[in-house]
Request: fold
Amino acid sequence: MSPIPLGALASARVAAGGGVSLTGGTYSEPGDGYGYHTFTTSGTLTVTAGGDVEYLVVAGGGGGGNNVGGGGGAGGCLTGTIALTTTQTITVGGGGAGGASASANGTNGAASSLGALVVSTGGGGGQGGTNGANGSTAPSGGSGGGAGIRARVGGAGTSGQGFPGGSNTQPTGEAAASSRAGGGGGATSVGENGPNGSGNGGNGGNGIQWPASSGTYYAGGGGGSGGSNIGVAGTGTHGGGNGANNSNPGSNATANTGSGGGGGGGTNANGGAGGSGIVIVRYPL
Reply:
């Protein structure tokens, strides 16, 4: 199946298949035998005939940290099948802002939900470069934020929704210019430590492909900063923002992927914003 081009979807309408009839979001039939209702903003999913549906619920990703900051963690990602019988309020969480003041953490992303039936947790913000004592922990979330420089610990992910952010393994007291930040956690793997095996900023953790074999990915972690001078910045994955080095800001994550923003470089460079989330419901035609 080819990726679903969100900008090309038809307007929302009722579609009946396998006994299920729903209205809401943006409806599409991409040719894989399923009808899809895609919500890129909050709305209502009206059920006129209930039945089993598959879902993807991704929360907003966390923003990257400031000043050699960690990458933002991906928003919590939940998939599965549920019997849908009543109309549901759909909430699509926004991405968190990047850290924008000296060594500030990125902001956590906001939750997304399919009514009260399925609720995913916003991604953890990346840790600011000199925010907190050595050994302190980056923000937790659906996936955890990456650690800033100087011997800090990546944030925890939420069980069943995402993975922890990468830690910083530089020895305590090592010069900031030679230190690197951790990548944010993703839906299916931990963010890389900073420095990773190459001595660079940590890459973001991997996202999830949904549906399987579709080529469309969500909820990747943001890359960690590469440091003030010589470091190579970490790369965001599956829509996550790239980390930065020198005095460059981290890049923003892609909207409606729930991925994390990139960590900002040195000299108080801002972190990138996390990507907004998404909710998709599908059923056989």
